[in-house]
Specification:
This protein is mainly alpha-helical. The chain has a domain of 153 residues. The chain contains 8 helices and no strands. The chain is elongated and about 110 Å long. It holds the Pfam family Noc2. Belongs to the NOC2 family.
Length: 242
């Protein structure tokens, strides 16, 4: 039922995209497949977007492989999977997405091979298995191996996604730390430059001739009150009568 809804929606999405060819291609080119396992509700734009629908179809394929891979350990697997394959073949025939069609083809081929492997194991049984035990075979069928591979790939993708989000969260803090370090280095360089300039001035002062230093020191020691005052002496002039 889910594949039927997805296939119908994919057909509508592709028809809509072909009818809008050349109009909004800029927005479609930058589109990105959403995280299906994170979203619980799709917006109006995402519900009719082909990338969203293909992501949903891919997760449905993973769900099928997960269930059928576990059931492939049961002697009843050939009968169980035959009903599923009838619907999957029909949906693959009418699927408008090439990527989803390839996944369905892989599932069909793996299911058929696993069904044949289970039949061989079932015929090799020497006694009827207990009805209380449902999964009696080892997980060595093609479907079981595909289940292990897809589960591992899913776990790796989830791990990479978490690491990427963690790096994005730590980036602002690292940038702040880098800014503080730059400020500290800038302040230290400024203090070192001031100290070097002061030392250069002191060295230049010491390098002046001794006489100039003494003359300068003598001028600094003279106070305004120590300056000599000019004396005015009265002179007596003789008159003409004398």
């Amino acid at each position: 039922k889910c594949f039927e809804v997805v296939n119908n929606s994919i057909d509508k999405a592709w028809q809509k995209r072909r009818s809008m060819a050349g109009k909004d291609n800029a927005g479609l080119a930058g589109a990105k497949a959403p995280e299906v396992e994170v979203l619980t509700h799709f917006g109006e734009g995402q519900r009719y977007d082909s990338l969203t629908l293909e992501a949903v179809g891919g997760n449905l394929c993973f769900l099928l492989v997960d269930h059928m891979g576990l059931l492939s350990q049961s002697p009843a697997f050939p009968e169980l999977v035959s009903i599923v394959l009838i619907h999957i073949r029909k949906h693959r025939k009418h699927c408008g997405s090439e990527a989803l069609r390839r996944q369905l083809t892989t599932f069909i081929q793996t299911a058929e091979a696993s069904a044949e492997q289970v039949r061989v194991k079932r015929e090799a049984l020497t006694q009827v298995p207990s009805f209380k035990k449902f999964l009696i075979f080892d997980a060595d069928t093609s479907m079981a191996k595909l289940r292990v591979t897809m589960t591992k790939r899913k776990a790796d993708e989830e791990k990479q996604r978490i690491e990427a989000e963690t790096r994005d969260d730590d980036k602002p803090e690292r940038e702040d730390d880098t800014g503080d370090k730059k400020k500290k280095r800038r302040g230290r360089r400024q203090r070192e430059a001031e100290e070097a300039a002061q030392e250069a001035a002191e060295a230049a002062e010491k390098a002046k001739p001794a006489k100039k230093r003494r003359r300068k020191a003598g001028k600094e020691e003279e106070a305004p009150g120590d300056q000599k005052e000019d004396k005015v002496e009265e002179m007596a002039f003789s008159s003409e009568e004398d």
